[in-house]
Amino acid sequence: GKCMAYTYRAKFIEISVGINHNVDELLVGILNQIRLKCRYLEDKAMKSSNSDTHHGHWYKSRSVMRATMKARQMLTSLLGKEDSKLKNCENLHTL
């Protein structure tokens, strides 16, 4: 789940409606994401006249990202360390 969320630049949170686990956090996080995205888009609109927004970097390709994430996931399981970028998928207070 986290790997897929990172690959598609989405957020990830595990919830259980039955025991009300993380349901409130999810709702607050959704509202937070909407507000952050609105602010981001407003800032981007202001800056768009001054800078070029097109970056055709090879490393932003989804297939390269997936391969990288698979390698990272394998190393993480071998070394026992959780990747900080995967933790960012769970942080609903950042974009």
UniProtKB/TrEMBL annotation:
GO (cellular component) term, any one: plasma membrane
GO molecular function, one term: calcium channel regulator activity
Domain of life: Eukaryota
InterPro entries reported for this sequence: RGK_GTP-binding_reg
PANTHER family given in the database record: RAD, GEM/KIR FAMILY MEMBER 2, ISOFORM C, RAD, GEM_KIR FAMILY MEMBER 3, ISOFORM E
Protein name: Uncharacterized protein
Origin species: Bracon brevicornis
